[in-house]
Specification:
The chain has a two-stranded antiparallel sheet with strand order 1-2. The longest helix has 15 residues, at 28-42. It is α+β, with helices and mostly antiparallel strands. The model has no long low-confidence stretch (mean pLDDT 84). Helix content is 28%, strand content 11%. The radius of gyration is 12 Å and the shape is elongated. A hairpin with a 7-residue loop joins strand 1 and strand 2.
């Protein structure tokens, strides 16, 4: 059985499965960053837009 890991950083703890992509996982920290990116894209901003904090 293959061990689950974060797609972005490779972490193996605090994983959350992507609801849109089966068998894709992100750790808690990468998931928070991913949510920010999705909000930026929803509002039409480039995903590389720097975060103001």
């Amino acid at each position: 059985m293959e061990e689950k890991e974060c797609l972005k950083c490779g972490c193996k703890t605090d994983l959350k499965e992507d609801p849109n992509i089966p068998d894709i996982y992100f750790c808690l920290e990468c998931w928070k960053e991913r949510e920010k990116t999705e909000v930026n894209e929803k509002w039409g901003y480039d995903e590389s837009l720097p975060d103001d904090g």
